[in-house]
Amino acid sequence: MSRIPNINNVQIAGNVVRESDIREVGDTRTLRIDLAHDHPYKDKKGQWQQFTSYFEVELWGGLVDRYQQYCKKGTPVIVEGTLKQDRWEDKDLNKKARVRIRATKLHILEYPQK
């Protein structure tokens, strides 16, 4: 038995970068949002720069109903969840993989204007 603990937790803040996408998966609805997270760093000259990373986030079930109206482009949020890796083969049988954040909590930092 492995001595590595089974830990898979993510907490990240960022802005929603495009309108959310709702899909039906069986009897359950899922909401996908794309999140941009800005990470400041100092370059070789000591100047502050900014590196932006983009993450795909998926919400399931009750989270979709609760947050779909607020996940608009530009909305600042904090996402808590777990990492999930999808693996598949494309039509040319090339192996593909991607990592998503599966949200368990979403905190809206500023509600979008109506």
Short description:
By secondary structure, this protein is mainly beta. The chain has one helix and six strands, in the order E-E-E-E-H-E-E.
Polypeptide structure, described:
The chain is mostly beta strands. The protein has a single domain, classed as Nucleic acid-binding proteins (OB fold (Dihydrolipoamide Acetyltransferase, E2P)). The chain has one helix and six strands, in the order ββββαββ. The protein has one helix at 62-67, and strands at 10-16, 21-25, 28-42, 48-60, 76-89, 95-108. It has a five-stranded mixed beta barrel with strand order 1-3-4-6-5. The longest helix is centred in the middle third of the chain and has 6 residues, at 62-67. The chain is globular. The mean pLDDT is 93.
Main pleated sheet: 5 strands, mixed, barrel
What proportion of the residues form beta strands (DSSP E)?
over 45%
**N/C terminus separation:** 53 Å
- The outline comes out as globular
The counted number of beta strands is 6
Task: Name the average pLDDT.
Answer: 93
Radius of gyration: 17 Å
What is the H-and-E element order?
EEEEHEE
Helices, by number, come to 1
Q: Provide the domain count.
A: 1
Strand order of the largest sheet: 1-3-4-6-5
Descriptive terms for the model:
60% strand, mainly beta, OB fold (Dihydrolipoamide Acetyltransferase, E2P), five-stranded mixed β-barrel, single chain
